[in-house]
Amino acid sequence: MPTEINFIPAPRPPEQSLQEWVYQSLRHALICGQIDPGRALTIRGLAQTLAVSPMPVREALHRLACERAVEVKDNRRVIVPQMTAPKLQALFELRIVLETHAACAALPYLRAEDIAALEALDAAVDAAVTSGDIERVTLTNQAFHRYLYAVPPAQVVLPPIESVWLQLGPFVRVALRKLKVVYRIDRHQEAIAALRQHNAFALQRAIEADIRDGMAALEAVDGLDGLFE
Fold first, then answer.
1. Which helix (H) or strand (E) segment is 35 a member of?
2. 39, 188, 198, 210: least surrounded by Cβ within 10 Å?
3. Nearest to 175 by CA among 216, 125, 118, 126
4. Are 222 and 178 a contacting pair, CB within 8 Å?
5. How would you write the pLDDT of the chain (229 residues) with one tens digit per residue?
6. How far apart are CA 143 and CA 182, in angstroms?
7. In this structure, what are the phi and psi dihedrals at residue 31, rounded to the nearest 5 degrees?
8. Side-chain half-sphere exposure of 99, counting CA atoms within 13 A
9. CATH no. for residue 55?
10. Count: domains in the chain
């Protein structure tokens, strides 16, 4: 399998260190599925793609391995992990546990301006769905959830949630390429309604339904079993 990957990293902000930019660039590529499962990665190849020295790439891959986004094999080969059916199910169930907890933890701290921001993010998801831009759907959907979960001042659950997203990203993108129709019940609006009512039970149900809808969309993909390891 070729080791070259083709993605265009975002420009580096002036205030961001080179090491952080390399990490965020690779993280973005993985979380939105720009690198396929099973793809072998080389430090040299990634360094050439990003036009940097090998050191920041090595550091970024170490951080991503700690987040389980990549695997370092016995021969020091780095790959994007393949997916199995049991692992996929387990990751979605873990999403439900972590994200319903995170949403309910945010409820006491939510302000009117936060709800307005979530409304705007949900509109961005709708626009991405309408345009059929799967990568944009992924990123705007994650932005909605990330904003909500990051509301509490002592938020600690977002890193493990994003680790799960990283593990799912490459496989989900491959699977969704085969999805012919994107049908979406707007569970975000259900979540926003629950937030307005300060209803923790309804919020938990909306977040869980949103995640289960995502799993159902994957299960509707023709030939899904053939994508597993």
1. none
2. 198
3. 216
4. yes
5. 444 577 888 899 999 999 999 999 999 999 988 899 999 999 999 999 999 999 999 999 999 999 999 999 877 789 999 999 999 999 999 999 999 999 999 999 999 999 999 999 999 999 998 898 888 989 999 999 999 999 999 989 999 999 999 999 999 989 988 876 666 689 999 999 999 999 999 999 999 999 999 999 899 898 999 999 8
6. 19
7. -70, -25
8. 27
9. 1.10.10.10
10. 2
Q: Which two tokens stand for residue 100?
A: 């319903």
Q: How far is CA 222 from CA 29, 173, 181, 215, 218, in A?
A: 25, 14, 12, 14, 9
Tell me the two tokens of residue 15: 């205030």
Count of beta carbons in the 10 Å neighbourhood of residue 74: 5
Which residue type is seen at 110?
L
Give per-residue burial for 180-200: e unless 16+ CB within 10 Å, then b: eeeebeebbebbbebbeeeeb
For residue 115, give the amino acid letter. I
- In the listed set 61, 79, 97, which residue is the last one of a domain according to the structure? 79
Provide Rg for the chain, Cα atoms.
Answer: 18
Q: Do residues 189 and 167 make contact, with C-beta atoms less than 8 angstroms apart?
A: no
Q: What is the CATH number of the domain that holds 212?
A: 1.20.120.530
> Which residue's entry shows tokens 């680790």?
163
